[in-house]
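Retro notes
What went well: the complex prediction finally ran end to end.
Inputs used:
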Amino acid sequence: MSETATVSSRISDSFWRRPTILLLLLVTPPLLWLGIVYLGSLFALLAQSFFSIDEFTGLVRYEFTLKTYAELFRASNFDILVRTIVMASAVTIASAIIAFPIAYYAARYAKGRWKAVFYLGIMLPLWSSYLVKVYSWKLILAKEGILNWLFETLHLSWILQAYLAIPVVGGNSLSVSWTGTFLVFVYVWLPFMILPVQAALERVPPSMLEASGDLGASSSQTLRHVILPLALPGIIAGSIFTFSLTMGDYIIPQIVGTSARMIGQAVYQFQGTAGNIPLAAAFAVVPIFVMGIYLTLAKRAGAFDAL
Amino acid sequence: MDARPDQVASNNRILRQSALESMTPAVSLRSVSRHFGQVRAVDAVNLDIAEGEFFALLGPSGSGKTTCLRLIAGFEQPTSGAVVIFGEDATRVPPYRRPVNTVFQDYALFPHLNILDNVAYGLMVRGEKKAARHQAAEEALSLVALGGFAGRKPSELSGGQRQRVALARALVLKPKVLLLDEPLGALDLKLREQMQSELKALQRRLGITFIFVTHDQGEALSMADRVAVFDRGHIQQIGAPQDVYDRPETPFVADFVGSSNVLPSNMVEQLAGQSVPASLRPEQIRLTDTDGKLIGNVIGSAFLGAANRIELDVGGVRLSVLLPKTAAVPDLGSLVNLTWDDGALHVMRGEHV
């Protein structure tokens, strides 16, 4: 017993004398993981996108070309990009609007037990399976579903029918419309927006809001000039989640929504059934590219000034 | 117009004197209470602060002094009573419509704005044009000797500089009353002393009412024209620093303002024939060879630099005595005779208000 104690204390002594060794031991495994597994596969993906497929043989030609990227601009493919980016933007904006008051309440007013209730309420949906949640939404939105029944019972079916008659966002029923896809996306990714916004608001001391009021700002001016700028890094952090998760998802639009595809589905099909790995890779690069532009613009607009 | 500084000061004093007597008070609390559940943070406080006064709210933490300041600023609503600012009932007026501005304890500078925009913030929300508000902000910054700092971020400034920015940000709006919440609390000793005299000079120059909260009695005594001493939600005494120091009205004030000795009423009855507590300042007690008024047992001594302080046990009551450096320090455990001039013993009100 005492022997092992001396050995372990000797080890900790030598770590204490050479802290860099301990640091290396701690940091190397995760760095290898990130470096090789993550960045490596990312670069492999990038490399694939610069190859092309031979139209006769269906085999990948390992020569540098931009032909595959040019294919992204073919009408049918470009539609997929536009559709996905519009959807991701709409989901992000809606999430931010819904998340802000919830996060604000949690950061400013919830104390003790209510804070625990808040965290539980936000996290609980994340603990259940994603598929279960998506399928239950299909049941809610379906023609025979709860929502339809509710509208019928309230004799308000005509509102729903009028909405479904609107082109693009409407459809046969909510479960096969873009509105349905949008609703499920917002529901599923909302916690990823609430938590960073709440964390950002939590860091704003109450005295800062009092100072704003003291200097003559009304509540709406304080919201615009103090709270929103200080919450912005959190909103941006949350939007990275909602935006990129929406752009990459291929299950939700498959289960709830129209037959028109989004980027995730296109990647899934091109690398699978179609066997066109270069095009799948080119599609997969688009979200990374869009996020890069988005973050650069956000930084230039001063979104991270409060950090 | 070159007015001599002492002349200005005396004019100010005359103005202040007449303000005290005739004009409507700048701020007036009329039996104001603020209760948080069962806690009576501020309980039936009456207070009149004259225009142009440098007024200190002094007390230990939890005594209600900060709540009082927040009631004046409008961050708190009184449970009962009225807050009157320049004769107008401000009880239900939101902070952003009150002619008062606050320097916060943590300065509360906006981290996403640079120094110039921080100072110009109040003018911006009022809708002033950019050029006008930036010019006013520059002037306010030079008032606090921070002329070259306009483009920096608050995080790039030291504590003392941030404090000046907070001051400039409040003063740029030309408030009638400036509220300061522990303005020097976060600064180190040297800087604190420097800021004390700067604040005092600034207040003289601008002639506006300063109300500041502090737990440091030295700060209150050296800066303020008048002091209100708070304890457990009540004002124990209001008066000029000299009065509060020399003639404390309650044992709490005697003890808190300059750690005076508080003699219990039975001891005072023997000494002065009145059954009330009394205060006796440590520096006014002398050791004598004969004919002492009290006899004490020396139980401790400490060297304070400029003087020696000895602790005495007098029939179960603990007294401290400040001895000049030239006087010999008696040995521990020895008995000493104590005396003082007539009038040094100051009888007070009873224990409770």
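What we learned: Chain B touches chain A at residues 73-75, 94-96, 100-102, 104-106, 108-112, 121-122, 124-126, 169-170, 173 (CB under 8 Å).
What to try next: split runs per interface for comparison.
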